[in-house]
Amino acid sequence: EVIDWCIREGMIASERKCRVCDKNMDLVCKKRVIDGYVWRCRGRPNVREHDVSVSMRKGSWFEGSKMSICDILLITYYWFNKLPIKYILKNVKVTPETVIGWKRFCREVCMDICMNENSAIGGMNAIVEIHECKFGKRKFNRRRVIDGRWVYGGVERGTNRMFFRVVENRGKDTLLAIIKTSILPGTTVISDCWKSYDCLEDEEYRELTVNRSLQFKDPETGTHTNTIVKKWSAIKRQMRTNPRRGQFDGYLAEYMWRSAHPDKFREFLTAIKLIFNPDDVPL
């Protein structure tokens, strides 16, 4: 039933062509494989003799995993609903390392989705708040020194549209590049970065006010950056465990995807099918 459901949902290919004779292969039973089925094609009349087998998972999201498809779907559902590892281990017979690895894979999917959906925010009459923040842990419990990653974030007021960019170096040149790629013309941009970098009189920033009709405002002019500051707080709560450097981007992408698609597990599966399309693989 699980395999039939995956085929109907497009998570597993509904047919497969033979690389030798280009005919449709048959989905046949095979006890020695975890799913119990493989695609197979044997030589037919007037075709040179051959016996070709292909994994049922080829090109799919399930390819490469040693877990059953049922366990993969369960772990993904539990991760999506933020259930703790102890709960998952109680309901799925796998190791803690397997659960941790698959949750990391889910966050990588979020990264792919965010890159594919990476569109600029703002526009005419829209207000975008930009703020910078450093994520990490304090060195030797000192109050001011933090070892971690710098992130620029932007949130469009009144919507769920946002962006976050992890950067190696902060500064006005980095911020300028982010504004050019992430903010639409006609936007009012509010940030306390202008004061920190003293950059609004720079020629390139002044050109943006003319060529792209951007308006730059400082929070001291009566505006505020409460919206983006609240986002930072929410992200930091999610990252209380201080993820390793190589995993930080995944946690950030997970937050972005969850914010844009709350309580929509089916949308996550749809995104998976777009990234891991089992029908879009070579013979």
Automatic annotation (TrEMBL):
Signal peptide: none annotated. Residues 120-260 form the ISXO2-like transposase domain. InterPro entries: IS1016-like_transposase (IPR053164), Tnp_ISXO2-like (IPR024445). Pfam families: DDE_Tnp_IS1595. Transmembrane segments: none annotated. This is Putative isxo2-like transposase domain protein.
